[in-house]
Structures are given as C-alpha cells and as structure tokens.
Specification:
alpha/beta, 16 helices, 14 strands
C-alpha cells in the first residue's frame, strides 16, 4: 500500500500551511468553518499571556508598595495604641506588643518590595495568651478596622488533620479570602486570627485530656508551612476537594498570623518551672502554700519551653516569635469597660433608648453588680452585654408602645434580684 500523506491545513492566525501528523500540530480545529490555530501560534499566545500576567502582578506590587508608605506613616506604634485605648480598657502591655508587631510586619513587606539583596526579614507572627473574655478578639477586631485590611477569625479547635472528619487548615485562608471580598491581592496582605489555639495542643503535653485527639499534633504540623509562608490552594466555599474542582491560590508569605487562647493551666506549668529554678541551692527560699503567685504575675513570665510543656510543638513556637500576654479583668476594669470605651455596652443602650425619646440611667451600684456577676460567671467582659440585655428586655419591649418622654433607672436590685427598672415620666 502507498504511504498515506499527511493532511495539510492553513492556520487562521499565521496563514502558514501546516502538515498535520497528529492532533498536537493543529490543537484547535473546527471542521465546519475551517477555523484552525497551529501549535506555534498557541505557544505565542501563551507567552503573551504569561508576560501580561507578570506585568500586571508587578504593577499590583508597585501599587501596594506605594500604599505601604501611607499605611506606615498613619499607623506608627504609638498611634495604633492610642486608637486601641479608645476601645479597650487596660491590657497596655498587649497593646504595645501588637502595635509593634503589626508595624514591623508592614515594614518587613516594604523591605521585601524594595530590596532584592537576598536578605529576608522573618514574619512577626504572634501568640496571645489570656483568660476567656479578657479582650483578645476585641483587640484584633479593632486593629483590623484601623488598618483597613481583611481580618478573619477561625476556630482552631474545628481544624483537623487530613483524613479526619472536620475542617482542613486551608479553611483559615479561605475565610480570609471571603473577608477580602474574594480579592486575592487583598487577602494576601490580611490578618488571620486562630482562636482556641490551645485546644490543638498535643495530648502528651500538660494539656492532657481523656477525650479523643483527632490529629491535634497533625493539625500543628499542617499549619507550619502556612505560618511561614506558602501558596495555599482551596476550593470555593461548600465545594468538596477533588481533582477536577477549580481551586483558588493564596500566598501566605505576607499574611500576619495571630494565634490565641485561654491556655487553661499554663500558669501551673510556669509556676512549676519557676519553683524548680528558685529552689536550687542552699540559700533558696521555700514558698509557702499561701504565697502562691497570682495568675497575672505568672502569665507575663511565660517562655517558649512552657508552651512546649503545654503541648505546642517546637516548630510552631519557632514560627510564633512574638508572645503577647493579657491579664484577667478585675471588678474595676469591668466597671470601666461598661461605660468608658466608645462602644461601651451602657452607651449602646443609651443610644438605642434615646431613639425612642427615653433617657437611660444606670446607678453606680447597678454597674458594679453587673461587673460582679460577670466575675462570678468567669466569662470576663464577654458576658457584660448579655447581663444588661436580660435586665433591659422587658423595658425595650414596653417602651415603644408609647411616645411619651420617660426616664429608665436601673438599680442594683434589677441586677441582683430581678427587680423591674424604674420608669419615670419626664415633663
């Protein structure tokens, strides 16, 4: 049989006549219209697209680099702390640490954009330790508003190692992507807060538990690359992972990670270490049972080795160089939280009732009773608004029934005994 000659066809782009030996010589071909594109033209189109994407990325980098100058000028550490002081009572040490960490993080990005000398400044990821309701999430929430950057909170206790039922660690980055209104560029310069981080401490640490441990050490291992800086790939919300599912890629190199938790029992770990070091030698003083140091005194003395003893793996601690500690809130601090900050709970209710022409008056004893009840519940500032809400419910239900000018007085008995608030007519 005579050898079959290859088909020849003209490329619609370059107009060259192509000998078609297989489908790759003419990757695009429509037999109905004769429209065709040869492999050389496909290569050229890809090259132009790659160059265009690279130029666009470079332009975006320049735009953000220019924005960094303005951001650094407006958000110096003392300015950040002054802003946080308007909303958060006490925690001055934590405010300073966060202010400096955020400022240095953006300086690090600026250095990376402007210098290519091989020197890389490491990220200042932060680990926050403090009792429940002391203001960890509130601090970061207000910080993100000031900086006007995407901020996402993810519950670390919901994360599991691949293979277990639960959320993969990529969920944290996906949450930030949605907080950035699906803008990858914005997401790549945001802040991720991993709450309840102490819940993923490994069982072999001081945080030992009789409950199941769904790969907690594995979760920490999975977080390593993300904290340091890597390209994280995830599917759209609600989509399951499979080879054909379209994915979104976000580089975490310039994302600031802040992890936090109550770390219940960490004070005992610190006290144990301090006791060992202070009891060495003949002249060492023995501390009596009644002289045990308080939680606030101990928490500020936390060291990386205490976190390792608690169950956080050394590699993670190495990627969280900044340790930020917060104190418990006493009665006086809670009293100030009720009335002083710009968004204080009492101010919120005053504004709500003022819209109905009603004046709200909290007696001093009533405010102190609210603070005492929050301390009894051991929930810190978190429960303050809930306690007031319980007292105000009936008032807020009844008030709109009439347009009269009135004054509502909240007494101590309203908080402690469930008495009804006093309502007086105002002429």
């Amino acid at each position: 049989m005579p050898e079959r000659k290859p088909i020849q066809h003209q490329c619609s782009f370059c107009k060259r006549v192509i000998e078609v030996h297989d489908q790759y010589d003419l990757p695009i071909y429509d037999p109905n219209t004769g429209f065709a594109i040869c492999k050389n033209c496909i290569r050229e189109i890809n090259r132009f697209l790659d160059e265009h994407d690279a130029a666009s990325e470079q332009e975006e980098r320049h735009v953000f680099a220019d924005q960094l100058d303005d951001m650094l000028q407006k958000n110096k550490p003392h300015i950040i702390k002054q802003y946080l002081d308007e909303y958060i009572i006490n925690q001055d040490h934590a405010k300073k640490i966060l202010s400096v960490a955020v400022y240095n993080h953006y300086k690090r990005m600026k250095y990376g954009y402007e210098h290519e000398d091989g020197t890389e400044i490491e990220k200042s990821n932060v680990i926050m330790l403090g009792p429940s309701g002391c203001g960890k999430t509130a601090l970061l929430s207000h910080l993100s508003k000031l900086l006007d950057i995407p901020f996402a909170v993810t519950d670390a206790s919901s994360l599991t190692e691949a293979g277990f039922v639960g959320a993969d660690v990529e969920v944290a980055v996906r949450n930030l992507y949605y907080a950035a209104d699906k803008d990858v560029e914005k997401a790549e310069h945001g802040i991720i807060y991993l709450d309840e981080f102490d819940k993923i401490a490994r069982k072999s640490g001081a945080n030992n538990s009789i409950t199941a441990d769904p790969g907690h050490e594995g979760v920490q291992q999975a977080l390593l690359k993300m904290l340091e800086g890597s390209v994280v790939e995830f599917t759209q919300r609600g989509q399951r992972k499979h080879p054909e599912a379209p994915t979104i890629k976000v580089d975490t190199k310039n994302i600031l990670f802040i992890v936090g938790g109550a770390f219940v029992g960490i004070d005992k770990v610190i006290a144990k270490r301090l006791q060992k070091s202070s009891s060495i030698g003949f002249g060492a003083e023995v501390q009596g049972k009644d002289e045990q140091p308080k939680f606030d005194e101990l928490i500020h003395q936390v060291r990386p080795e205490d976190l390792m003893e608690y169950g956080i793996i050394p590699e993670i601690i190495g990627r969280l160089p900044v340790i930020c500690t917060l104190e418990t809130l006493d009665e006086d601090a809670l009293l100030r939280i009720l009335t002083e900050p710009k968004n204080a709970p009492v101010k919120q209710y005053e504004k709500l009732l003022a819209m109905d022409g009603v004046t709200l008056d909290f007696e001093e004893d009533a405010l102190r009773a609210v603070a005492q009840k929050a301390i009894e519940r051991k929930t810190g500032a978190r429960s303050l608004k809930g306690i007031i809400e319980d007292v105000m419910l009936d008032v807020m239900y009844e008030i709109p029934k009439s347009d009269e000018k009135r004054k509502v007085i909240i007494t101590k008995e309203c908080i402690t005994d469930g008495a009804k608030p006093k309502v007086e007519a105002v002429s």
